[in-house]
Amino acid sequence: MTVSFSLKLERGKLNSSKTNSDYCSKINRGNERMRNKRLTLLLAVTMVLVFVLSACGSEEGDGKAASAADTGETTISLWILNDQAAYLTPIIESFQQDNPAIHVEATFYGTDPLKESLKVAASSKTLPTMWFTWGGSLGSFYPENGLTLDLTATAASHNWADIYNSAALDMVKYDDKISGVPFHVASLGIFYPKELYAKLNLNPPTSFAEFEQQMEKVKESGITPFAVGGKGGWDVMRWTEQLIEHFAGPELHDRLNALEASWADPAVEKSFEKLKEWADKDYFEKGFITLDPLEAVTPLYQQERAYALTGSWIDLNFSAAGSAPETFGVFKFPNDQPKVRMSSFTEMFQINGSADAKEQEAAVKLGEYITSPDIVNQYIDEYGSPALKEFTSSKQSPHTSEMAEMLGDGSFLISDQALPQAVVQKLFEAQDAVVLGEWTPAQAAQEIQKAVETYKSGN
Question: I need a labelling partner for 454 at 20 to 30 A (CA). Which of 25, 134, 222, 316 fits?
């Protein structure tokens, strides 16, 4: 081929230099066209490959997200108490059936584990979309730190004032803004076995002195009077605050809770003295300070204890234990005041202020669904004490309506919601220290006041 090519060039060269130049130009143009064709083909193949690969990647990754977005589906996380699972589980399932585009991932906790988990999640900015909590200082922690959705406008536009009772709406407020969907409004009374009272020929006491006489009679019969567990502090606190209401009276008690009066007060000392006296008389179970409240109350179901200071939700526990709720009575702590107030509190659902707007909307919808009159009345036998203006009476929980009527003389906010949490923890510590003989009642009162002063100073 080389010889032939050379000969052709030589022949062209012999003909003329112009002809030779034209010929070479033609060859160069031909080579350039070939290169352009190859480049065009290569680019075309590359584009096809890129399209195919991106299409595959879209189907496996972004395509899924786009598909989910197109469907309008939303997933919200919910943290609630495990003792509410019996009725909240079917309610949530019903909600999802009525709202198929909303998926609810519910996690159930015990009382103290929920409190701890929420605090940890708050500090790490990993709160769920919606969570169960209490009113007062327990629930106010979250709006105080800018973690909740302000529901004031929602309450107005959705006419919450026509649905929930005014006390419930007031108790879910922080800084005059509604911080949660009202769930329950509960009050505490002293539950007792009617059969035991009949056996001992007793009637509900009408004075503090009579109540103490009955405790002694119960103890002499071989029954430990109080079903109380000290673990966590809040169960013992229920009795402590009732003693403060008795010795201090409503006005001073409210001032103490508002941190407007000194806790180093004789009335507070007397309250701790009485708590210590009852413990020394073995009115509480041995080692009750470390006992879980849920374990401590169990003997009451079998009438092996005489008293539990709790709410109407205990009716469900009676039934679960095989005891009829109507075989138990309830009376207000006889504090010798002209009007016997009951310790009360609210429970609510708060919504994450940092959640996606679509998730927040779904959470509001779920909260309103769970607390709606239709749902409440459908599950009233298990529901507890609704925060509604009106609801049907429960045959399975007969004490719900009875205790609601008892509130006629008023109520005071339960201590672990009324007080700042730093002060609450010192109150819990003081209770344990007095019962164990580590602090005198006077020292306990002084230590609580120190915690108050520290809190007020901001240190």
Answer: 134
